[in-house]
Amino acid sequence: MEIIDKNIDGGKAFDWGKISADYAKFRDIYPLEFYEKIVNRGLCLSGQTALDLGTGTGVLPRNMYRYGASWTGMDISESQIEQAKLLSENMEINYIASPAEDIDFSEGSFDVITACQCFWYFDHEQMAPKLSRMLKSHGRILVLYMAWLPFEDDIAGASERLALKYNPQWSGAGETIHPIFIPAQYDEEFELIYHEEYPLKVHFTRESWNGRMKACRGIGASLSGIQVQAWEREHSQLLLEIAPDEFDILHYGAIAELKKKK
């Protein structure tokens, strides 16, 4: 499904469905520490029900499944959900293809609602009261994020500059460590009770880093097939010149926990 938002990439259209196979292969990369931050907050554990918004290929439910929560994952892209189902074989995870704004679970359905790498895509005027209604008393919204640091990591910086050469409108570039922004629409029914930002090193090969870059919004989700091929040729050559066979890319992780006031 093609998405156009004037506040994202200058209104340039993007479609995660175009890169579902690459997303499934190259974006399940969060280190164990990323998931332990959730567990340490006492969230998404056995006996709890959890809804993952913008689940993509089900990365969060699949990796948190071992901790025992009952998971539902939803995503606007049917092809992303198809990949999620394939990758979740033998796991009892319920997946739904739907825009987040259209979901309508009954009151008090969930202990936790998560949003990983996707919170800024939502219509918060609609979502804030909807999420409050679907959460149990004092339930939690958990917003999660991880990004490479282009000004602190040379390989990430070089790859990002090449991505901007092909897609100057991409607004996902230039990340620095900062708290997750929570829109004011959540202030009435939620309170921010915890946030943390922390450095992470994520291991890659040349192939997997090329795939990770290709599976980002600025490349595979928004460029034409011809443009993606041209970028990939140039990026592969760039990595041969600047990167060893295996390497770490410096990222940061961020977490924001919102508690329902009633």
Record keyword descriptors for this entry.
single chain; 262 residues; alpha/beta; 8 helices
Descriptive overview:
The protein is an alpha/beta fold and 262 residues long. Helix content is 32%, strand content 26%. The protein has eight helices and seven strands. The protein has helices at 20-26, 32-40, 59-64, 78-87, 124-134, 154-166, 206-214, 225-242, and strands at residues 49-53, 70-75, 94-97, 110-116, 135-148, 190-205, 246-260. The protein has a seven-stranded mixed beta sheet with strand order 3-2-1-4-5-7-6. Helix 7 runs antiparallel to helix 8 (225-242). The mean pLDDT is 96.
Quick synopsis:
The protein is an alpha/beta fold and 262 residues long. It is 32% helix and 26% strand. The chain has 8 helices and 7 strands; from the N terminus they run H-H-E-H-E-H-E-E-H-E-H-E-H-H-E.
Largest sheet: 7 strands, mixed
Give the uncertain stretches in residue-range form: none
Percentage of β-strand residues? 25-35%
Distance between the termini: 36 Å
- The strand line-up of the biggest sheet is 3-2-1-4-5-7-6
